[in-house]
Amino acid sequence: MSQKILVTGGLGYVGGRVSRFLSGKKDVEIIITTRKKRAVFPKWIKKRNILEVDMSLNSDLYKACEGIDCIVHFAGMNEIECARNPEKALEVNAGNTYRLLQAAVQQKVKKIIYFSTAHVYGAPLCGKITEKTIPRPVHPYAITHRVSEDFVLSAHDEGKIIGIVLRLSNGFGAPESPDINRWSLLVNDLCHQIACNGEIILKSSGLQKRDFITLLNVCRALDHFLTIDKDLIKEGLFNLGGNCSMQIIEMANLIALRAEKQLGFRPLILKPMAKEKTFENLEYNIDKITQTGFDLIDNFVQEIDDTLLFCKKHFS
Fold first, then answer.
1. Which residues contact 154 (CB under 8 A, 6 or more apart)?
2. 3-class SS of residue 6
3. What is the DSSP letter of 93?
4. What is the DSSP letter of 135?
5. Starting at the edge strand that comes first in sequence, how are the strands of the sheet with 209-214 ordered?
6. CA angle, corner 25, sides to 21 and 26, nearest 5?
7. Engineering a disulfide at 68: which of 6, 243, 269, 281 sits with its beta carbon 3.0 to 4.6 angstroms away?
8. Predicted TM-score (pTM) of this structure
9. 213: burial class by Cβ within 10 Å (0-12, 13-18, 19+)?
10. Domains of the chain
11. Model confidence pLDDT, tens digit, residues 180-200
């Protein structure tokens, strides 16, 4: 049976990849919200599927939720914007999520899938992290996501809507458009540096560990939760990672190796001369989501290659 899905922030970084993925499915109709007028849209999306929405207005949200089966919620301020204005971040990220939920419940939307962040657990991430790990967010970006999570899970617990929260680790991959400014994210930044400068400059020793997941696997996880059996959702909270904990320097070396293969040269990796300290291991545990039947595919290298080639095309 066909589903009508509202994707907030569906022209953003992760949202754009998810929207394009969903647009290729025959049993899905997507509506993408945007907060500003655009003259040009991606070729894969029809203009009639774009809805201009001011998420601070209840009337706009009520209209957007009409006839919708499921909401996939990405829209919000990124970590850089949140750091600049924490008060606005709380209003936009948490306040808009609350208003969206109210409209969804009123319009009898069946399900909402909210993409949160692993950084609700704290910073830096270390040790074994499961859904039972107590969150200790320190950055305004993480704090506002934590508040939004509580709104979604509270509505789920009260039976008002099926609410799912996915705590995403470090997603990476080529964006849908060069206009999407998410080049501060680690893998994207390293690929961007190679295209622009022919080298990689790390800001630290690179010994910190992070969990990485490809955007294709993020899309596949979303697809999994669109049709998942309700009994498997339980309380609605899931870690979404790549089961791949790597040091930053390991990722930099891998990207440099792929640059040699794809771009024809091996970039230098430069890092600050400072006393190196050790970092605790990281295991971002995803057992809970895999127990629902979701599995990762191995497209790690392909996603890096695609990002390098994207950066070469648009920025070199």
1. none
2. strand
3. I
4. P
5. 170-172, 209-214, 245-247
6. 160
7. 6
8. 0.95
9. buried
10. 3-122+129-171+212-240 (3.40.50.720), 174-211+244-315 (3.90.25.10)
11. 888 999 999 999 999 999 999
List of long-range contacts for 183-186, beta carbons under 8 Å, 24+ apart: 184/79, 184/80, 185/13, 186/210, 186/248, 186/251
Cis amide prior to 124 (ω within 30 degrees): yes
In the block, residue with structure tokens 């190679």: 194
Q: How far is residue 235's CA from residue 132's CA, in Å, rounded to a whole number?
A: 12
The residue count of the chain comes to 316
Task: Write out the E strands in 81-126.
Answer: 111-117
Q: Angle at Cα 173 formed by Cα 134 and Cα 166, nearest 5°? A: 30
pLDDT of residue 273: 78
Helix, strand, or coil (residue 160): coil
* Alpha-carbon span 262 to 308, nearest angstrom: 8
Say which residues have a Cβ less than 8 Å from residue 225's Cβ, sequence separation at least 6: 113, 164, 166, 233
The tokens describing 210, both together, are 């992070």
Residues 6+ apart with CB under 8 A from 173: 17, 187, 214, 215, 216, 303, 306, 307
233: left (phi over 0), alpha (psi -120 to 50) or beta: alpha
Residue 28 CB-density burial (10 A; 0-12 exposed, 13-18 middle, 19+ buried): middle
Is 39's pLDDT higher than 60? no
Q: Which helix (H) or strand (E) holds 52?
A: strand 50-52
CA distance 38 to 197: 31
231 burial level (CB within 10 Å; 0-12, 13-18, 19+): exposed
**Count of CA atoms in the C-beta half-sphere (13 A) of 288:** 20
Q: pLDDT tens digits for 155-166?
A: 999 999 999 999
In whole angstroms, give the CA distance from residue 179 to residue 315. Answer: 11
Query: 54 φ, ψ to 5°?
Result: -95, 105
Which amino acid belongs to residue 281?
A: N
Contact between 74 and 9 under an 8 Å Cβ cutoff? The reply is yes
